Predict the structure.
Amino acid sequence: MSQTVKSIGLIHVMLAVLKREVALAMRQKGEVLTPLVFFMVIASLFPLGVGAESSLLLRMAPGVLWVSALLAAMLSLQRMFATDYADGSLEQMVLSPTPLGLLVLAKALAHFVLSGLPLVLMAPVLGLQFGLDARALAILMLTLLLGAPSLSLIGSIGAALTLGVRGAGVLLSLLILPLYIPVLIFGAGAVEADAAGVGFGGHLSLLSALLVLSLFFSPFATAAALRISLE
Amino acid sequence: MFKDVDCTVQAGRWLYVVGPNGIGKTSLLRMLCGLAPTESGEIRWNDLPIHTQRDRYLQDLCYLGHLNALQESMSVMENLAFSSALGGIAPDHQQSQEVLARFGMRGRSQQLVRHLSQGQKRRVALSRLALSPARLWVLDEPYVAMDEGGIQLLSDLIAHHLDQGGLAVLTSHQRVPIGQHPAQMLELKAP
């Protein structure tokens, strides 16, 4: 070798993971678009199912949009570690001198950027269909923005636990959906609370608390689950 | 699976793990890396059990398993950059090109991995080794799918690594002479 190879810090390793995930997603655009289309279809089915009475739709809208977003975000969870597991990259991540928790954090962050963020941006468009006003749309977006990273982080635990399991998709849903309940309650509740005039600050605080909690604990749990899956 | 395995590898030496199919060569190597748990006993690096110094041990370790750890829809160069980043290093463009050229992959750095042959994929995976600053190389069947030229290249690479005071542990079904370095054999037998 002509000269010694430069070594890099933890942040750069995490950025490399993030960059790779984004580059991969750009090459398989279908994987980014599928959850978005799913989100749109599910949210659009409700007015067809319950009828077009506007007051009813207005009341349901936050909950419907949140549940649809949650299911859409879950669609892509299964693939979070699956290809890395299949091609051996996951072994290399576990053996990286960079702590596995940080690599997992970067992966979850990438999942948020690629499948959470598009849902956040799409939500107001669907919200309009339900007749939500500008204020309600803004609150809805804000709660989704705070909640979606938690969904990715909590989801990563399930994705790691179900690696290499047959029928992982169903198992993943059963494992993860109960854990999503708190995020759903405070997320969907915020719009309603504001409409009722009681303020939504508390809901946002609790959503943030959930995000901090999952930021702190889920990388550890996911890393531990990945080690077990690889044994 | 095997039992009563006891051996020590010194700096500049290489351990040749041999044994029939299914005896647990891959398992042993995975245990050495800390990927799989040992039922009993201990693995030490610099006289300390590896699980008490995982961070330091992983700095010193480079593992090449059965799988090449290459993402099919990314190019050769992107894969090399990513696997190096995981190892905590960032080779510049010239260094990467040099290594790839050494492994006969000149002019293929922008090619997608899915368009490569098995042997070429193995060569890309081995390029990672050449860049790695790790002292201990654990190689599971590194010669699989390689042609004669590739076998020679890899043997030279390992010999060079040993000359620098590195260590290597490898399994292989074919006899491989590695420079002037005598093999330290470890034969796994059924109990």
In short: The two ends of chain B are 8 Å apart (CA to CA). The domain at 14-187 of chain B is CATH 3.40.50.300 (Rossmann fold). The interface with chain A takes residues 33-37, 55, 58-59, 61, 63, 65-74, 78, 81-92, 94-95, 98-99, 130-131, 133 of chain B (CB under 8 Å).
